[in-house]
Every structure is written in structure tokens, then in C-alpha cells.
Design a protein that fits this description.
Length: about 110
Amino acid sequence: MRALTKPPRRYALVRPERLDLDTFARSTQLHPDLVRRFVALGLLEAERDSAGRLWLAPEELSAVARIQRLRAGFSLNYAALGLVCDLLDRIAGLEGALRRRPRRTGG
């Protein structure tokens, strides 16, 4: 019978890149309170540290650009933006699944 062993511990070699609220707000030219509102509405994903400060991944910069384009182009309120973003993500996922699906040949 084999002895039970714990899997080896894994440690991150580098800290994941993330931006604090003020840096993120400056990068997007938004007020930090608006960024907080986007997080509260679920339009952006953020993490809180032990002190309660918000940290955002650099990928969220593109989410803000999308939000700004939708708001400017369609004059949507922030609640509607969440719904539209969710629907666009769902459509992109379905289109990706359709592209990966094997094509049937005639017969």
C-alpha cells in the first residue's frame, strides 16, 4: 500500500499584475467613484485586499473602453450596460462554439 503524500506546494514566482483604484481611474480618465460604481454594478471585476482597497486587472481596461463605446453609441444607462455586455459575451461564446464545431459535409 502506498503512503499518502501531500502534493507539493506551488508558489507564484511573480505577483500577478494589477492596478490600484487610483492608477486604474487615471488610466481610463474616469473618476474613482465611477470605477467603484462599475464594480458595484458588476460591470468590472475587482479584488479587495485586506485593507479593503480595490485592485483591478489590466484586462479590465478593455472592459471600460467597451462600456464607454456602448454608452456613447447607444446612450444606455449603467444598468442596461450590464445586460448588453452580458448578451454580447454570450453571443461571442456561442459564435466561438459554432466555429469550433466540426462542419458536416453534404450527403
